[in-house]
Amino acid sequence: MEQIRIEQKKIEHLLPEEIENRSFEIISEELTRRGILLPKEQEMITKRVIHTTADFEYTETLCFSRDAVKIAKNLILNGADIVTDTNMALAGINKRMLAKFGGEPHCFMAEEEVARLAKERKTTRAAVSMERAAKIPKPIIFVIGNAPTALIQLYEMIQEGAWKPAFVIGVPVGFVNVEVAKEIIMETDVPYIVNRGRKGGSNVAAAICNALLYELGRR
User: Fold this and answer.
1) Which tens digit of pLDDT belongs to each residue from 67-98?
2) Assigned superfamily of 61-217
3) For residue 172, how far is the Cα from the chain centroid?
4) Per-residue model confidence as pLDDT tens digits over 29-59
């Protein structure tokens, strides 16, 4: 009986390279059914986040500062580096595509010096990593998918006035300080893509980066 029920379900037989395209078709169809029309410049970023999470709530919570997509793309085209707060996000970013534009991704979380300083100061490695990243002599796109303390540290560095990031992708996930960390970044004059609320994660952070890279790669 169970086998009969399975056979009655519609199964799509697709080649591996066809699955992603079909997924985006399904996302577009569902957005249409929901009556959601995304701003053109934000469309592929939001769709790729939905593709990564299967969560359509991101259409309501992803926030973009003015000209955010254009600014982020120009930074990448001019060789900006990317700094993440997790090795998971680092692993998910398309490094080959980033390298084509002269950029390099970094994550300093596992460095012994970062761990030592964090222990001495009684703070997080993510916070110390932001200070470490500020020493890179290039424009930096910060990609934060896990640690709200990274966003808080960036905010404090901006407020001190000595340094500020070129761009912030702020999508940490969780419960403690997550929402306020995102909100304070949106109060600065730094261009951003931020997901309001508790949702996010390293996979979402990498998805946003890759959406930007793939759009540039199609030029």
Assistant:
1) 999 999 999 999 999 999 999 999 999 999 99
2) Cobalamin biosynthesis CobH/CbiC, precorrin-8X methylmutase (3.40.50.10230)
3) 9
4) 999 999 999 999 999 999 999 999 999 999 9
Burial zone of 38 (CB within 10 Å; 0-12 exposed, 13-18 middle, 19+ buried): middle
Residue with tokens 């120009």: 74
Give the count of beta carbons closer than 10 Å to the beta carbon of residue 16: 6
Backbone angles phi, psi at 76, to 5 degrees: -65, -45
Gap between the Cα atoms of 103 and 106, Å rounded = 10
Q: Catalytic pick from 51, 100, 106, 164? A: 51
CA–CA distance, 80 with 168 (Å, rounded to integer): 12
Q: What is the DSSP string of 30-97?
A: HHHHTT----GGGHHHHHHHHHHH--TTHHHHEEE-TTHHHHHHHHHHTT-EEEESSHHHHHHS-HHH
106 is catalytic: no
Question: How far apart, in whole angstroms, are the C-alpha atoms of residue 4 and residue 16?
Answer: 26
Burial 148-165 (b: 16+ CB within 10 A, else e): bbbbbbbbebbeeeeebb
Q: Assess contact for 67 and 182: CB atoms under 8 A.
A: no
Which residues fall within 8 angstroms of residue 204, CB to CB, at 6 or more apart?
49, 52, 53, 58, 145, 171, 173, 195
> What is the reported pTM?
0.91
| C-beta of residue 62 within 8 angstroms of C-beta of residue 45 | yes
